[in-house]
């Protein structure tokens, strides 16, 4: 179970899925630049469970982005500098993602009281209306705003 959020850390909490992280750190996608700037500024509390970081390593290890020649050391350094490692969350019995590989993102976001889960994944976006009832906004990166 994730550690309780520090009452002295007032930064809004965010969970970012693998594709959005790749869009930022590998593909330099313009649609994620606003989010990337906020993450780099330290104004957001970006939470990452071990399985999320492992998924990035796995995807890159499969050569998915090989033509972009990703700088693995830079990606690891960015995680270290801009994210906060936390334990995996227990599965949410109420919000179940139709893609089991993406369940970890919704579980962590709900367990930690994140304000946003940023994703382009259709299975996660399909949960947006129900997640909003629990105080979680699931948004595409190009629609994310800090407000």
Secondary-structure-derived class: alpha/beta
Which residues form runs of ≥5 with pLDDT under 50?
A: none
Task: Please state the CA-atom Rg, rounded to the nearest Å.
Answer: 14 Å
Determine the oligomeric state from the structure. Answer: single chain
Mean pLDDT: 92
Pfam family, one: PIN_3
InterPro entries: PIN-like_dom_sf (IPR029060), PIN_dom (IPR002716), PIN_toxin-like (IPR002850)
Protein name: PIN family toxin of toxin-antitoxin system
Organism: Pelomonas aquatica
What does the model show?
The structure is a single chain. With 147 residues, this protein is α/β, with parallel strands linked by helices. It has a single domain, classed as 5'-nuclease (Rossmann fold, 3-Layer(aba) Sandwich), CATH 3.40.50.1010. Helix content is 39%, strand content 12%. The chain has a five-stranded parallel β-sheet. The longest helix has 12 residues, at 50-61. The protein is globular, with a radius of gyration of 14 Å.
Q: How is the topology of this model organized?
A:
Elements: E1 13-16, H1 18-25, H2 33-41, E2 45-48, H3 50-61, H4 72-82, E3 83-85, H5 103-111, E4 116-118, H6 122-125, H7 128-132, E5 137-139
Parallel strand pairs: 1-2, 1-4, 2-3, 4-5
InterPro entries: PIN-like_dom_sf (IPR029060), PIN_dom (IPR002716), PIN_toxin-like (IPR002850)
Pfam family, one: PIN_3
Protein name: PIN family toxin of toxin-antitoxin system
């Amino acid at each position: 179970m994730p550690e309780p959020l520090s009452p002295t850390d007032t930064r809004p909490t965010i969970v970012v899925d693998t594709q959005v992280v790749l869009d930022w750190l590998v593909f330099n996608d313009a649609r994620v630049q606003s989010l990337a700037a906020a993450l780099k500024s330290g104004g957001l509390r970006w939470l990452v469970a071990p399985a999320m970081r492992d998924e990035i390593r796995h995807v890159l290890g499969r050569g998915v982005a090989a033509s972009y020649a990703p700088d693995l050391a830079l990606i690891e350094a960015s995680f270290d500098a801009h994210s906060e490692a936390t334990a995996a969350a227990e599965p949410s019995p109420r919000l179940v993602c139709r893609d089991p590989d993406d369940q970890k993102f919704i579980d962590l976001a709900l367990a930690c009281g994140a304000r946003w889960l940023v994703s382009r994944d259709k299975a996660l976006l399909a949960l947006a209306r129900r997640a909003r009832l629990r105080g979680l906004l699931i948004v595409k990166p190009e629609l994310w705003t800090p407000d």
